[in-house]
Amino acid sequence: MQTNRLGRGTRLRGAAHRARPALVLADAGATVIGVDSSPDRLRDIARGAVDLLLPHHAHLACAPSGDRFRLTPVTTAVRDADAVVICVPTPVDARREPDLAALSCACVSVVEHAVPGQLIVLTATSYVGTTWDLLVEPLRARGFTVEDDAYVAFAPERIDPGNERHTPECTPRLVGGAGPHSSRAAADLPAPTASDVRTVSDPATAEMAKLWENTYRAVNIALANEPA
């Protein structure tokens, strides 16, 4: 997998509610295919009714049209991609337990439609071991050899919600691949959307780092709310 094909029309697939990184990648020369199972959500994105900061709404309005940036509910579009980015919500349920239904469904779909040579990158926050359980092992069960004809990594999205000054482009990213080939391929992918890309030893390390960051933020917000 040569992710330097990005400048020559690499096709990327991601859940459409993560529109900002997709727009930056499109600006960098990638062909972006946004896949979401909800036609209503796709219509909202097409008309700009999405949860983006004000400057990013203007960016969406000026997004490349046609084949360069397109939205579809058809999951078989994954087969057209050189790189697949899985970025779906992982909320908590009424019992405050992680709800992984959307993530599991997305991973099943991606594995089902994966083709040899693809890079598959998971960005959604989840438990340590998610990348291995939902991507690496199912791909092996389909007959793929990870690190040979499939490349898998975890590269968590890092944002400061509601802060217009702290953009994804100025935020370092972590990448943990299933092996050295996956790490090298995945490290090239977010380069246009981050100030720095740092590779860690494996997906579990990157998953733990993301959980630690979220925990740190949650504790600090809770502490600030108490005296407030």
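(the above was protein one; protein two follows)
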Amino acid sequence: MQPGTYTLLLALDAADTVRFGAAGDRDLDAGYYAYTGSAFGAGGLSRVDRHRELAAEERDIRHWHVDYLLCHPETRLVDAYTAENEDRECEIARRLTDALSPVPGLGASDCDCDTHLAYAEDREEIVSVLDGLY
């Protein structure tokens, strides 16, 4: 599969505290979350399939911050946006967090971004931003 950048659109059906491994706990509101990552290693964008398997409880091992949210019982993976052969992870994450509400300290441990996870109460609010990016 091709390498690239992806954003997962997640729904958290009920407010809850989610433990993000070593990053600690975050009190999250019910609503929609956009997590942006990249997949330039072996397997490329097949990483999105791995995230889908976590969300479907077909896999248990958590590697990235988003995995903890994907495995939370109140979380649903709604959609995945991909940009093949494009290294736009930080650009897309910054545009999402500038337009929406950032969830600090998650998904950005290998760059200088504050976060790669953004929140909006309304799905359409996130989708309108994503549609302009992908």
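Reviewer note on protein two: Helices lie at 46-55, 65-70, 89-99, 123-133.
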